[in-house]
């Protein structure tokens, strides 16, 4: 797996932390932003954990968790926009939403590829 996804997830986490700091300081919003902070920083942690997976199945499981966390972070960003805490037309918000979408796509591709390799490995070992 490329370290590209790791660096993208880390960059996303840094941006989420900064957004969280802004939301609690400027808007006094603590509930939704905390959920975003938790899910947005968890993505990279799970990707790093996947690197130490004991098996391909373990790797896929951790990457699936990272994918779920990416989708959850995307949900919280959307909710923060719809409730007026964030302006969905602001370039920084658009960029963050696009970055979360990119993480989801990359993680989905990694998971599919890993699952196909697992199926292929099982088929070749049976023969």
Q: What report would you give on this structure?
A:
The mean pLDDT is 93. With 127 residues, the chain is an all-alpha fold. It has 4 helices and no strands. Helix 1 runs antiparallel to helix 2 and helix 2 runs antiparallel to helix 3. It has a single domain, classed as de novo design (two linked rop proteins) (Up-down Bundle), CATH 1.20.1440.60. Helix content is 86%, strand content 0%.
Features:
127 residues, de novo design (two linked rop proteins), 23S_rRNA-intervening_sequence, Four helix bundle protein, mainly alpha
The average pLDDT value, as a whole number, equals 93
Low-confidence stretches: none
Question: Mind telling me which CATH architecture this is?
Answer: Up-down Bundle
User: C-alpha Rg, in Å?
Assistant: 17 Å
Topology:
Layout lengths: L2 H25 L3 H21 L4 H27 L8 H36 L1
Helix pairs in contact: 1-2, 1-4, 2-3, 3-4
Short overview:
By secondary structure, the chain is mainly alpha-helical. It has one domain: Up-down Bundle (de novo design (two linked rop proteins)), CATH 1.20.1440.60. The protein has helices spanning about 5-25, 30-50, 55-80, 90-125.
């Amino acid at each position: 797996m490329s370290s590209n996804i790791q660096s993208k997830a880390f960059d996303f986490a840094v941006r989420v932390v900064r957004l969280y700091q802004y939301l609690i300081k400027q808007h006094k919003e603590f509930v939704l932003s905390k959920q975003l902070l938790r899910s947005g920083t968890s993505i990279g942690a799970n990707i790093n954990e996947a690197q130490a997976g004991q098996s391909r199945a373990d790797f896929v499981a951790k990457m699936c968790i990272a994918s779920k966390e990416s989708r959850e972070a995307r949900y919280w960003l959307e909710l923060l926009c719809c409730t007026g805490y964030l302006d969905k037309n602001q370039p920084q918000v658009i960029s963050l939403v696009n970055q979360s979408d990119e993480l989801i796509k990359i993680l989905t591709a990694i998971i599919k590829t890993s699952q196909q390799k697992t199926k292929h490995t099982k088929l070749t070992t049976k023969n």
